[in-house]
Design goal:
Elements (H helix, E strand, L loop, with lengths): L3 E4 L3 E8 L2 E9 L3 H14 L5 E8 L4 E5 L9 H11 L4 E8 L6 H20 L1 E14 L4 H10 L3 E7 L3 E8 L3 H11 L7 E11 L3
Antiparallel strand pairs: 1-7, 2-3, 3-6, 4-5, 4-6, 7-9, 7-10, 8-9
Helix pairs in contact: 2-3
């Protein structure tokens, strides 16, 4: 399955003020258009007294892309927000930027900059994850090799999971599928064949992205 990028956090929110207008950015990781619409509806209800609740979303399945300026001048809000996610290659994302008008007009350029900033700030606060094929793995080793095994997981761009402490220490991890063979060989090499990394299964899910 092809890998793709999504927001690292299920939900994230940021806020800033520009010439007394308050901009509150929200992003979610979503799987369907219905889910995105629900988030937008929730923000409209929560911020019912705001001047604008501008939004956009990108859904990978069906290549669904939608946006709205919600009363702002055409092209100054929803589309600039959308471009933030397109530039970063982020999908399955819904973004709502709420604006409380501060009494000072920002002008077309000012609005584009403000809505772009809000979407960008919120995405940066969330971070970006990659949805890809991972190998679930475990390795049991003596305590003298514990720190070394953790370094090998990191070198393989893996995600360290549960650690069990007994007569030996057992490390669980997720590794990018393409790095599994090298990791397995490295563990065997380091221990002169005394220890073998175990492949427990595979899973398609989000994990840290190298940017």
């Amino acid at each position: 399955m092809a890998e793709y990028h999504v927001p690292a956090q299920a939900f994230c929110e940021t806020e800033f003020t520009e010439k007394r207008s308050r901009f509150i950015g929200h992003i979610w990781r979503v799987e369907t258009e219905e889910e995105a619409r629900e988030k937008i509806s929730e923000m409209r209800s929560q911020y019912y007294d705001a001047r604008h609740n501008c939004w956009c979303y990108i859904i990978r399945e069906g290549n669904v892309v939608r946006y709205s300026d919600d009363g702002e001048p055409q092209g100054t809000a929803g589309q600039p927000m959308l471009e933030v996610f397109k530039r970063e290659g982020v999908e399955n994302v819904c973004c709502v930027v709420t604006r409380y008008f501060g009494g000072i007009l920002l002008g077309t350029g000012g609005l584009v900059r403000a809505y772009t900033k809000s979407a960008k700030d919120t995405l940066e606060a969330s971070g970006i994850a990659v949805v890809r094929q991972w190998v679930e793995t475990a390795v049991s080793c003596p305590y003298s090799l514990f720190e070394r095994m953790k370094l090998e997981v990191a070198a393989a761009q893996g995600i360290l999971g549960e650690i069990e402490y007994g007569s030996d220490v057992r490390l669980y991890a997720l590794l990018p599928a393409e790095n599994w063979a090298d990791y397995e060989a490295r563990v065997t090499e380091l221990t002169a064949g005394q220890i073998a990394a175990e492949k427990l299964g595979e899973v398609f899910r989000a994990g840290p992205a190298e940017r």
